[in-house]
């Protein structure tokens, strides 16, 4: 399918399903699109089963598979979405919670990766799926990043405390980049094991090699983001043309992706850093009020548009899942609580350690655990995996967990927030933007 044809189909479907969701399902926008995509997919599968001679399922499956979901998300949407999120984030408020955010996005992701990976290895083996331990760790890495895009609207509707909302936003900006880097390192080890045996794997896992990859991806990504953000900022300083400045901001994100892919740097981290720089320093000293307003309008629209297409694609990707073995679906169902446990430990451990030095809101652990939705990045990373024994099982498990997370957790986290913060304010809050004092309960 040609690029423009695929874009046309997706945009028409997103608009149509959004309209139906608004009038019939009445679910939150992103969740409604995913559910609509799922329902449409299941209707096609049912029609294919009832009238096999029409061969509708095969035709739709071929169309869906022609859209490279992994490249669409990882090479296109992710950087744009992260830049849009960072552009609207107050760096001053982010700094006040930086220790919590960075701990969740680093130590928390590593803990979640290890727990989810070990759980997956035990459960895959218990259900008769032959898979190496390294690929279970890869599964842990790809399922650990959170995608709280859908839940942010629910948080606002539930009148969640601003400091909680900022933690969710901050974590989402950084843990996608961390998750992709950890995923890249572990996939490199897995490929080395398949092609070169244990010796190659030991070399790929050597501290020097891992450190080099991490520094190149993370530090290089941050530096690229600062350079790109500063270049965009300097251009804004010489202009007072809102349309041209918006064009430059969009070009900056695409330029980041182009350079990062060729130098093997972290494009997500670069996009976040550039967005924070432009959205804060640029907004204060390089933009007119008109440019700032127009920039917000355009990037808010792009954010909503890309999220609509992304969640619709997740619903349609049911055609890419292997249903030939029922054991894949059973292990996926059992992995849901295991992944939730991994998320809980990935939040509980850093927050508990940080509570020794500072007060953190009551309810932070349980809300961040249940509100840590999985999303398109997990499915995209799973589809990016090389061929290995058990790959289809990993892809199926990832898809089932993501759908459960978005639909079930996404539709219930608002109730959890309201019950945890019935007044919409954390207890003993001194001022809305400060870290809240709280009891050490989680």
Structure description:
The protein is an all-alpha fold. The protein has one domain (3-420): Up-down Bundle (Na+/H+ antiporter like fold), CATH 1.20.1530.20. Helix content is 79%, strand content 0%. The chain contains 17 helices and no strands. It has helices spanning 3-25, 29-50, 56-66, 69-87, 91-96, 98-126, 133-143, 149-157, 162-204, 207-237, 242-263, 267-285, 289-316, 326-354, 364-370, 376-383, 391-420. Helix 8 (149-157) packs parallel to helix 17 and helix 16 runs antiparallel to helix 17. The radius of gyration is 22 Å and the shape is globular.
Explain the layout of strands and helices:
Blueprint: H1 3-25, H2 29-50, H3 56-66, H4 69-87, H5 91-96, H6 98-126, H7 133-143, H8 149-157, H9 162-204, H10 207-237, H11 242-263, H12 267-285, H13 289-316, H14 326-354, H15 364-370, H16 376-383, H17 391-420
Helix pairs in contact: 1-2, 1-13, 2-3, 2-13, 4-11, 4-12, 4-13, 4-16, 6-7, 6-9, 6-14, 7-9, 7-17, 8-9, 8-17, 9-10, 9-12, 10-11, 10-12, 11-12, 11-13, 14-15, 14-17, 16-17
What number is the mean pLDDT?
87
Number of strands: 0
Task: Characterize the biggest β-sheet.
Answer: none
Summarize the amount of helix as a percent range: over 70%
Tell me the CATH architecture: Up-down Bundle
SSE pattern, N- to C-terminal: HHHHHHHHHHHHHHHHH
Distance between the termini: 50 Å
What class would the helix/strand composition place it in? mainly alpha
Work out the helix count.
17
Question: What is the CATH C level class, in words?
Answer: Mainly Alpha
CATH topology: Na+/H+ antiporter like fold
Shape: globular
Tell me the domain tally: 1
Beta fraction: under 5%
Q: Low-confidence parts lasting 5 or more residues at pLDDT below 50?
A: 428-442
Multimeric status of the protein: single chain
Rg computed from alpha carbons, rounded to a whole number of angstroms: 22 Å
């Amino acid at each position: 399918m040609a690029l423009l044809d695929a874009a046309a189909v997706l945009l028409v479907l997103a608009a149509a399903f959004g309209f139906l969701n608004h009038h019939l399902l009445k679910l939150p926008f992103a969740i409604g699109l995913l559910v609509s995509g799922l329902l449409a997919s299941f209707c096609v599968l049912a029609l294919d089963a009832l009238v096999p001679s029409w061969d509708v399922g095969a035709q739709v499956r071929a169309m869906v598979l022609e859209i490279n979901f992994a490249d669409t998300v990882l090479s296109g949407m992710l950087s744009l979405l992260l830049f849009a999120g960072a552009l609207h984030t107050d760096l001053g408020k982010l700094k006040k919670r930086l220790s919590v955010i960075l701990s969740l996005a680093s130590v928390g992701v590593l803990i979640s990766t290890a727990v989810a990976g070990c759980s997956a290895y035990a459960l895959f083996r218990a259900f008769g799926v032959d898979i190496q331990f390294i690929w279970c760790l890869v599964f842990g890495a790809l399922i650990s990043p959170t995608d709280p895009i859908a839940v942010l609207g629910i948080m606002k509707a539930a009148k969640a405390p601003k400091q909680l909302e900022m933690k969710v936003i901050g974590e989402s900006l950084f843990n996608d980049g961390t998750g992709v880097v950890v995923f890249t390192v572990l996939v490199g080890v897995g490929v080395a094991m398949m092609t070169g045996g244990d010796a190659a794997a030991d070399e790929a896992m050597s501290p020097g090699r891992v450190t080099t990859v991490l520094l190149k991806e993370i530090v290089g990504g941050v530096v690229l983001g600062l350079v790109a953000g500063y270049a965009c900022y300097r251009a804004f300083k010489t202009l007072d043309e809102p349309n041209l400045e918006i064009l430059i901001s969009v070009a900056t994100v695409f330029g980041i992706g182009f350079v990062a892919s060729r130098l093997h740097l972290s494009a997500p981290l670069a996009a976040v850093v550039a967005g924070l720089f432009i959205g804060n320093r640029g907004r204060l000293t390089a933009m007119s009020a008109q440019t700032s307003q127009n920039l917000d309008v355009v990037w808010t629209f792009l954010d909503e548009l890309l999220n609509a297409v992304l969640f619709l694609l997740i619903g349609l990707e049911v055609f890419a899942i292997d249903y030939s073995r029922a054991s894949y679906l059973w292990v996926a169902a059992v992995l849901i609580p295991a992944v939730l446990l991994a998320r809980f430990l990935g939040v509980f451990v850093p927050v508990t350690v940080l509570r020794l030095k500072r007060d953190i809101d009551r309810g932070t652990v349980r809300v961040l655990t249940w509100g840590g939705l999985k999303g398109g990045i997990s499915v995209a990373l799973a589809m990016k995996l090389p061929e290995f024994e058990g790959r289809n099982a990993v892809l199926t498990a990832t898809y089932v967990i993501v759908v459960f997370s978005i639909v079930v957790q996404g539709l219930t986290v608002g109730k959890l927030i309201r019950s945890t913060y019935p007044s919409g304010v954390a207890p003993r809050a001194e001022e809305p933007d400060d870290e809240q004092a709280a009891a050490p309960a989680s």
